[in-house]
Amino acid sequence: MQRRQLLIGGASLMALTGCASAGAMGGGAAATADELAIAKAVLPVQTPRAELLQPWTGPYEGVPPWPSVTADKLKAAIIEGIELQRAEIAAIAGNPAPPTFANTMVPMQLAGQPLDRATSIFGVMTQNIGSDDYNAVDTEVTPLLSVAGDEITFNEPLFQRIKTVADTARAAGLTPEQTRVAERSRDAFIRNGAALDAAGKAELGRINTALANAFTSFSQKVVADENTWTLIANEAGVAGLPDSNKAAAAGAARSRNLQGWAIVNTRSSVDPFLTFADDRALRQQVWTKFVNRGDNGDRNDTNALIAEIVKLRADRARLLGYGNHAEWRMQDTMARTPAAAMELMMRVWEPAKARVTQEVADMREIAGHDIEPWDYLYYAEKVRKAKYDLDQNELKPYFELNAVKRGAFYMAERLYGFDFTPVPAGSVPGFHPDVEVFEVRNKSDGSHVGLFYSDDFARAGKRSGAWMTSYRLAWGYDGGGNKLVSNNNNFTKAEAGQPILISLDDAETLFHEFGHALHYLSYQVRYPALGNTPRDYVEYPSQVHEHWVLSRPILDGFMRHYQTGEPMPQALVDKVEAAATFNQGYATVSYLSSALVDMDLHTRATPPTDIDAFERESLARYGMPKEIVMRHRLPQFNHLFTSDAYSAGYYSYLWSEVMDADTWAYFEESGDVFNPDIAGRYKSIILAEGNSSDRGEAYRRFRGRNPDVAALLRVRGFPVS
Fold this sequence. Notes:
This protein has helices spanning 33-42, 71-93, 101-110, 113-128, 132-153, 156-167, 176-191, 198-226, 243-255, 267-276, 280-291, 303-319, 325-329, 338-367, 376-388, 392-395, 401-416, 504-521, 535-538, 540-544, 552-557, 570-578, 584-603, 611-622, 638-641, 652-669, 676-687, 695-703, 709-716, and strands at residues 7-8, 11-12, 229-232, 261-264, 418-422, 436-442, 448-457, 467-472, 483-491. It is an alpha+beta fold and 721 residues long. Its cofactor is Zn(2+).
């Protein structure tokens, strides 16, 4: 979740340049003293009153004051923070001196810091706690933040100053980095309506505020539907489940004062049930409840909201001079156009469907009946056992959660020289008792990098899934500083004293989100305006780190059987590798169908009003196999409808995977998956630079050529043509 809250057009400036569920940070060479002095002289001296706007104090260069956070304090801080930022923007825009980089662009980087602190806390509390009082604050302040962002975008004197600096950058002798800041800022303002006339700005402001309200409502409705469960009263209903999953379901029931086993309506609970539970009727019941989140015709139904959102997006795109939302959204991506994204998706879609046909045929032989969507994972597991003598339950004893985290820390040390150490108990507060905090240091010289917050467990009110976020962003232009980053997961707690055993897929997800954290912990970026990478690049550094889970040094050192202490035997690893492309038809079609429908939805000349009908028709046009459902159906598709961030951009995981697969091949071909030379260049070029240079050019500097799509096809086991 990006929280650099210098608002433009209802979103942060950074969000316009592409972001993950992550903050971006830096620590490059500081700006000159003269540049900073000029910038600071432009801004008014202000003393915030609200507690949550104050600079953070305490150890490690100051940490968020979680124990004192309340919904009321947060609301007051955001309202005051908007006013403080408003005064700063007015001072920049009203400066009588001719516009320069130092008196316009640098103070734009400095503006809004108190609001940054409040909105960092705001994002954490609404996503991880999500109680009624924080939901109420979310509903109230989100449109205020949108309006404040539009005020900045629509400030004509401010825009003219930025445009002048950008248009005259080369004549003024700005560095390439400064020129990139100015030109990207100018272009972001234009994309978000700065060049519209007064009537156009008024209409765009109305659209942005309406979208902000709709995004908040969508998020809250989906979370409410996920805070439900299927209660199983008879032990026969959980037959087939591994003991760890049974214990988790029993614990989930007890925490809700229920008798039996509760399958909570989130993926982390549902997928294991669909994979192992023998009761077919119960699998259908659990599956139906899960895929119908947001689509039940009740108070949490999201279909009308989606129709409103896509219409507003289409209206906004036309107002800004674009044919559709996707064209507008993709201006600052690596793909650039919907056609380029579609070309890659369709290259993978057809072989993925062909693979599904083979997978279904294999499952029918075992099942003796047609395969329904609630059967797929269950019978896939049977086929895996038959074809590869591989049972996922053989793997789970080697993936104890704390050991997996230590393995991730070891990966960070070997690749990038980061050392993760638990902070002394009680020295750093978290926003919830479950949160663990680790100090990050450079192993080479012991220098402090920042703190890593680990929030692993599901709770009522917390959004589903896994993500990375940041609490503080450190930048080189004002001297840098440390970074405060967080990974958030939704594992189910085990009974007291019992190990938390996770699947290989869960372990890869943990390494994925940790990859986001490593990306931003590595940042050496001078200006916040160059902090966020394009949407279809930002998943690349996270996805590539999944590959190290099964590397032999990590298996030997950390993925040891929780009872015997023995490392995973090579024979079992060989089975995993032999089955590496198993079920890739399902995995690819499940994901890619969601990406295709997303692009279809946002390239329509006339937005649909019947969302369920549109979803069915779109899938039929692409030939969606009937045995599979989209990974994210539209009524619960948080990526698309809780912000603009991934809208017309869900393809980005596949785009990033091309670079990810090609990078992993580079490490493997070197004969050492921890090759220090490749790792060092990866850190310095791919991770540390942020968006300080074109990311396609950066990849070519790292790899010596463009990424090879064939590497992706090989990883997924599809024909390379």
